[in-house]
Here is the input.
Amino acid sequence: MCRRVTPPPLPPDELIDRVTPGVAEATAETNRADFRTSGRQSVQDLEHALAAIDRRLDSYGRILEFGCGCGRIMVWLEPLAARCSLHGTDIDEAAIQWCRKNLPFAEFGVNPHEPPMQYGDAMFDLVYNHSVLTHLDERHQDVWMAELRRITKPGGTVLLTVHGEQVFEDNEIAMAGAGEDPRRWREQLESDGILFVEQDSYTGSAHPDFYHTTFHAPWYVFEHWGRFFSIRAYLPRAALSFQDIVVLERPDDDPPRPRPVAARPAKEAFGGPGPAADGETNLMARVEAELTREIAPRYASRFGRPGELARRVLLRLMRPYILIERDLDRELAGAIADTRRQLRMPPLVKDVLDRHSERMKRLEGDLRVELVRLADRLDRVERRGSNDG
Here is the structure.
């Protein structure tokens, strides 16, 4: 856990207002207090999000806050500076100048409105932000997602926040209360998965013209952001009990890509020619050849041509059943293994998955036994056909 003993320095109200809007003379003290308490809470939110993938803040060597503003979160990370290299970046030059002067334990830089940033490839093993992509349209998001992927190490973690379904529902209620009809926004969000609202309270503010309000559907995050990162967790209302946190992982540049089951040639289903995979024998390879045979059997049937046709139909009917069942079991076993690696599961859930994994192994063993029996049966049929001949 990250704990700061001394109270952090406080930026001027003008800078606080850019990240915690609403500072006025009558409420300034309250908003200054909110600035401090929300920063400390955001650090706890980051720690809770990382716990979902069994990591801690202090387990990373080089950390970047993307969109650090005037240090609302960074001021609470000073205890990490003894063992972590801390960095912050933002488009707000005045905020960065204040951070450089008052937070010497970290390094700060001003980034442009669009990539690239000043950082090298694969420089950070943790990148996090609070409420950056909640204000960008899809084009800006895509270029920044690609840039975040570039500066993150393979296997590194990225934490991003979004306005999710619950935040959008809150806005629907507010719009209805103000006499507005939110249905067209709802239709666009459900259709596109992303909604960018240009006519909002940020219009005419100190923020750039492209800075407005964006909502995300969870399915869009998994489908669209999955092109840039692996999705490790999606945590609703995990950021200040308001925004959703998305936990991402930078994959390797050229990860191994196993061929889909459907694309595997039939002759390779049991290991192909030569030594059989997974301990399967050449006998099983022969069974596969029999199951996938597209010409008439080498041996004659006791029942003549009708018997040969019937045998061919039987083999073709059996092939998809056996192969699909086998592949399905293997896919399920692989999914269970992936789930166990990626999630911290309650003991009861782990026990259920363990039992199901064992069932998959037993089913595959039973399948091998049945294939051996089938091969023996085919051999007997072949010998009988030869004797009858």
